[in-house]
Specification:
619 residues, alpha+beta, Nucleotidyltransferase, domain 5, Substrate Binding Domain Of Dnak, Chain:A, Domain 2, 3 domains, six-stranded mixed sheet, four-stranded mixed sheet, 37% helix, 25% strand, binds adenosine-5'-diphosphate, binds magnesium ion
Length: 619
């Protein structure tokens, strides 16, 4: 598809003045900030020389602690110590199905607040508190106010989650230059966008295996412009799962049947330690309870094979999405702590048949890339490449029969705008409901509803005459606005999609999977629904015609027509497609005859209205 030029925010009008721009990786487990100084991107340390700020906040009556200082309270004061707040961003109470120790308050369909010793705190406020820490760190170490920031988000974040992140940044007093997908930032960190050594297009794979999630993206660099071709991943596949596999193996080795909670936690901690040590040693000792087990790289590789195979098959699927072969990939970039494991690097190397890039610290690479983009956007850089992200799920609207008309398909590069024309279904219809949905399935009920609005004041016209233009626009941050306009009268209506709750990662995953699984079934369902719509249209038109001209039919004709009509009306909602088609055909035989009668009558009328002179003149 054609690329769209992005209107760059915060472009400096005075090119020689250096403006302070930062990149923030706002992570589930830890967050950090980076900036470009003297042309070089670097992470910023706090006063204790730490780079990683654990994403933890403790709210007590005595005050607030952040990061490492908040950590001890996870065990002593769990209700007031918020960890992994990113998992709550842009989610409703009903979306939050995972276990947590918090007291949440608020409506089911809204982002809930945490009940803390300092009162209610929303996920947005808590994230803002973390962002403020990083902003202060930057201002202290750079001795200057920050002019703008790029914040990274997972590729899977939907509209609500992105909006919540943006709100948090604004609350923290940051001028958000852009939200950037994490894998995209990683590619920038390696300067892949600057590589103009080859004239032809280049494709890159970003493989991000963190603590709890896996993300893979394919980027294309074409004439100095970056485009994200496709993304995919798994929301419950990461380092924690590798630890679990080690525990399972250890249990088997030690012939243990069950572990209580405390034992399991102990096993998990030991497994993680051993796994991380294996990145530097050929063989390590796994110490669990009173036992010592020897774990070699080869055995570890065997144990985690099942998890790595899953990541590899996702990589292959994303390659197919991008319509690329293995040979088309110039480089593979490793991101996330788990890619420090030799076994992971090995697996990636084997499948892509090349050495992956892993020279930049995988914890820091996303923040580094974000700072480089921030520096470009604020106007300090040379005219660099533009970064294009993609929509994670398809966007569309509801049409007759509960079907989805897709306007923007998933993995479309953003920003993007698409317009399509729709029309009215009934004579004199003066309003139209625009229902915006997200998902890969053909029926509205299987997709996720994002919002609805009504276009009112459509002038009365016969069905199918009105021309209603609907425009979907996704901006560079992935936020959607939908507008509808009736072209003859100019009436219009629009909404910005900022839903109060978001889609959980699991739901995104499910919607994607279902899209694949039910493709065939959906095709049939769509066919059936379309046939139903066609049938109701036929019936509607026939009823109108009968109102006007029923007198033209003989009693037998009328009865035959009515019988065919009732039959179709009766089976409309339950019948299978074959019987529906038969009933439509039957009705058509009679209704066509009726139409012919009406046509003749109209011609008669027309002829009667013609003056004799007209005929004699033309003859
Ligand atoms: P996230 O982005 O999900 O917050 P990270 O990218 O920080 O997570 O990755 C955390 C994971 O990386 C943990 O599972 C941790 O055990 C793993 N990890 C950290 N260091 C190493 C190492 N040296 N070798 C293997 N795995 C490691
Ligand atoms: Mg990460």
């Amino acid at each position: 598809m054609a690329l769209l030029q992005i209107a760059e925010p915060g472009q400096s009008s005075t090119p020689h003045e250096h403006r302070i721009a930062i990149g923030i990786d706002l992570g589930t487990t830890h967050s950090l900030v980076a900036t470009v100084l003297s042309g070089k991107a670097r992470v910023l340390h706090d006063e204790q020389d730490r780079v990683l700020l654990p994403s933890i906040v403790h709210y007590s009556s005595r005050g607030t602690e952040y990061g490492d200082a908040a950590k001890p309270f996870i065990t002593t004061d769990p209700k007031n110590t918020i960890v992994s707040v990113k998992r709550f961003m842009g989610r409703s109470r009903t979306d939050i199905k995972f276990q947590h120790p918090y007291t949440l308050v608020g409506d089911d369909h809204q982002m809930p607040a945490f009940e803390t010793a300092q009162g209610r705190k929303t996920p947005v406020e808590i994230s803002a508190d973390l962002l403020k820490q990083l902003k202060e760190r930057a201002e202290n170490s750079l001795k200057n106010p920050v002019n703008g920031a790029v914040i990274t988000v997972p590729a899977y974040f939907d509209e609500a989650q992105r909006q919540a992140t943006r709100d948090a940044a604004q609350l923290a007093g940051l001028n958000v230059l852009r939200l950037l997908n994490e894998p995209t930032a990683a590619a920038v960190a390696y300067g892949l966008d600057q590589d103009t050594s080859l004239a032809s297009d280049r494709n890159y794979v970003i493989y991000d295996l963190g603590g709890g999630t896996f993300d893979v993206s394919i980027l294309r660099l074409s004439q100095g412009v970056f485009e994200v071709l496709a993304t995919g991943g798994h929301t419950a596949l990461g380092g924690d799962d590798l630890d679990r596999l080690i525990v399972k193996w250890a249990k088997k080795q030690l012939k243990l049947k069950t572990l209580d909670d405390a034992e399991y936690a102990h096993f998990m901690i030991s497994a993680r330690k051993a796994k991380e040590a294996l990145s530097d040693h050929e063989t390590v000792e796994l110490k669990v309870l009173n036992h010592h087990l020897s774990l070699s790289r080869a055995v570890f590789e065997e144990i985690i094979k099942v998890a790595l195979d899953k990541t590899i098959s996702i990589c292959k699927r994303v390659l197919r999405d991008a319509k690329l072969q293995l040979d088309d990939i110039q480089n593979v970039v490793l991101v996330g702590g788990s890619t420090r494991s030799y076994a992971v690097q090995q697996a990636v190397q084997e499948v892509f048949n090349q050495l992956p890039l892993c020279t930049i610290n995988p914890d820091e690479v996303v923040a580094i890339g974000a700072s480089i983009t921030a520096n470009q956007l604020i106007g300090n850089g040379q005219d660099g490449s533009l970064l294009l992200d993609v929509t994670p799920l398809s966007l569309g609207l509801e049409t007759m029969g509960g079907l989805v008309e897709r306007l923007i398909s998933r993995n479309t590069a953003i920003p993007v705008a698409r317009r399509q024309e729709f029309t009215t279904y009934q004579d004199g219809q003066s309003a139209m409901l625009i229902h915006v949905v997200q998902g890969e399935r053909d029926l509205v009920e299987h997709c996720r509803s994002l919002g609805r609005f009504v276009l009112k004041g459509i002038p009365p016209m016969t069905a199918g005459q009105a021309r209603i233009e609907v425009t979907f626009q996704v901006d560079a941050d992935g936020l959607l606005s939908v507008a509808a306009r009736e072209t003859t009268s100019g009436v219009h209506a629009q909404i910005d999609i900022k839903p109060s709750y978001g889609l959980s990662d699991d739901d995104t995953q499910r919607l994607l999977l279902e899209g694949y699984q039910f493709a065939e079934e959906d095709k049939n369902l769509r066919h059936l629904q379309e046939t139903r719509v066609e049938a109701s249209r036929e019936l509607e038109a026939l009823n109108q015609a009968l109102k006007a001209d029923a007198a033209l039919l003989s009693t037998t004709q009328f009865e035959a027509l009515n019988q065919a009509k009732s039959r179709l009306e009766q089976i409309l909602e339950q019948a299978d497609i074959a019987s529906l088609e038969v009933a439509i055909e039957q009705l058509k035989i009679h209704s066509d005859a009726f139409a012919a009668l009406r046509m003749n009558q109209h011609i008669d009328h027309a002829l009667k209205g013609t003056k004799l002179d007209d005929w004699s003149n033309s003859n």
